[in-house]
Amino acid sequence: MCGTTAPKPPAPLIECLMPHVIPDAVERILVVEDDRDVARLVTIQLQQEGFEVIVNRSGGGVLAQVSELRPRMLILDLMLPLADGLDLLQAVRADPGLRTLPVLVLTALGTEADRVKGLDLGADDYLVKPFSPRELAARVRARLRLAPPEPLPPALTAGPLRLDLKARTVSLDGRVVELSDTEFRMLAFFMRSPGQAFTRREIVAGAWSPRHFITERAVDVTLMRLRAKIEPQPDQPRWIVAVRSVGYRFDGPGE
Fold this sequence. Notes:
Blueprint: E1 28-32, H1 36-48, E2 52-56, H2 62-69, E3 73-76, H3 85-94, E4 103-107, H4 112-120, E5 125-128, H5 133-146, E6 155-158, E7 161-164, E8 169-172, E9 175-177, H6 181-191, E10 197-199, H7 200-207, H8 216-230, E11 240-243, E12 247-250
Parallel strand pairs: 1-2, 1-3, 3-4, 4-5
Antiparallel strand pairs: 6-7, 7-8, 8-9, 10-12, 11-12
Helix pairs in contact: 1-5, 6-8
């Protein structure tokens, strides 16, 4: 119809997901926030402070992003489209390589019970919306002064299997194993939580960008390719095993 404007397509939920090359000289902050206006406000303020800001607007793939981007700090909303913020906080603190990563919770949940729960689960700081951008920046600076310089270990290992997070390489018995980006993220997702069973939906959230619709069949196909590259007997897998009525679990060599 004349005079009307076609609706704009929805923006992607993750505005910057796991770029391959980011200079390490700039301190990087990962902001997990679904509200576009809040995310933009935080980004502008922190960029003025000299930080590089990566925004995840869904909560999907956060642990994979942390592995890829090695941020100096995580700013985390609790109510997200694809994940529960408290579950993400627990997962971060359960990972030995992320226990010292500073986490600031930024949320509208402001009751005393909410604040106590967030801090008890491992948040270093808790800021309630609406908030002052300048206060947020001051809290970030204060936490980073106390934070260690390197929040992540250089590699994940399980017996003869070694995954180097910084160099993005995988080796088995000293032999380099060529993996696709998705296979690498899937293996890293599993190796961070050995012995834990995951549903296919959880695997998608941990290893894929939520901008794409991924079927359960795609998870199975990618897993078959990964098994073919790392399992001694791919048709009889012993390291990445199926869990009936749930999904898959990593029982890696040496676990």
